[in-house]
Design a protein that fits this description.
The structure is a single chain. By secondary structure, the chain is an alpha+beta fold. Among the domains are: about 70 residues, Structural Genomics Hypothetical 15.5 Kd Protein In mrcA-pckA Intergenic Region, Chain A, CATH 3.10.290; about 100 residues, Pseudouridine synthase (2-Layer Sandwich). It is about 15% helix and about 30% strand. Strand 15 and strand 16 form a beta hairpin.
Length: about 290
Amino acid sequence: MKRKFIYNIEPSDENKTIKTFLVGGGRISLTCLKKIKFADDGILLNGNRVFVTAKLTSGDKLEINIADDAESTVIPVNGDLNILYEDEDILAIDKPPYMPVHPSKGHPEDSLANIVMAYYEKSGVNSPFRCVTRLDKNTSGVVIIAKNSVSHDSLRKQLIAGTVIKKYHALVHGITDESGTVNAPIIRPDEATIKRVISENGAHAITHYKTLHTQNDLSFIEVTPETGRTHQIRLHMSHIGHPLCGDFLYGTENDGFKRQMLHASQITFIHPTSKTIVTIKSKNDRWLYE
């Protein structure tokens, strides 16, 4: 299956080469351009095949067709998906807790990827599983999946640039300040463990939070990570004395909660093709109370 992209050239793009317009404008990657330029219908300008060095004129119609021939090794398994949003480029899922995003040795057929691949088969989508915003198995909430290589490249670049805004809800021990910021570098000290620690030699990491509600020495907070380090929210909240409830790795082993009480509640990004700002919100914060 091919994904078609059509661009109507504006005066601001007059005299740009096709390569500059597509790659320099962040519309597709250089790797993708190298692949499609050899296809018969890979790049068409006003219906004609052209070189990537061809210059654009205002009013031109540029069409690119990208075949997604990447293969998937994920086993399709039927299951329920709580779909928050879907179009030709993006699939947004409300992931329940206790479900891993990717298959593993211990979870070969019960991951989100397995269910999405079965959904793709039924929907006629020819794409491997490309998760953009992955969550820990026990963390619930919004997961963004790219349905083609172009949208995947675009969203990954936004993540690296730090322009994707992610918000989480969490239940933590203790009474937190009204709001606060944790600025503490994170490092993985040993490849044999998944646990991270705070270290001056670690990667830059910043987390903002504000308190929404407090009760019985517990705080319900909204968290906005400025960076995206592994276990960042869990480690940062533990670092300031407010570990997540149910977090056996960074908190207390037996606090009465079955899993870390963390939920990806909202994500905002620029749509890969329409370039509009998209905000997707979870509808299942109730999982924090189950």
